[in-house]
Amino acid sequence: MATNKQTGIKGEELAAVYLQNKGYTILERNWRFKRWEVDIIASQGNFLHFFEIKTRTSSRFGHPEESIGQAKMNNLRNAAEEYQYQHPEWKYIQFNVLAITMQYNQPAEFFLIEDVYF
After folding, report:
1. Which tens digits make up the pLDDT trace of 76-99?
2. Are 109 and 67 in contact (CB under 8 A)?
3. At CB < 8 A and 24+ separation, what contacts does 26-31 make?
4. For strand 47-56 and strand 92-101, is the pairing parallel, antiparallel, or unpaired?
5. What pLDDT, in 10s, does the model give residues 29-50?
6. pTM of the full predicted structure?
């Protein structure tokens, strides 16, 4: 049985491939500033996208996206503000959530929630 960390790492690998196939260019993975982290920072067109990736191996405790709370989204916003400060060429940003469910012997399921407001 995989640990939560192993599941998260596998989910982020799947997410990067999924997003590249959707036309995103991955700029950063696991970008950190102080205590804040962004799982994936990508570009598409004129937009800089900040992705929170949540992966689960079952729906026993609900869907992956349901476990993202306000505190996590606040941390994402704070990290995004710092990243944009360091990279002022980006004028347009968007926050997204990519939920991945990986169940045994089944293809991974992806649920992309774009332009999340919080």
Report:
1. 999 999 999 999 999 999 999 999
2. no
3. 28/83, 31/79, 31/83
4. parallel
5. 999 999 999 999 999 999 999 9
6. 0.91
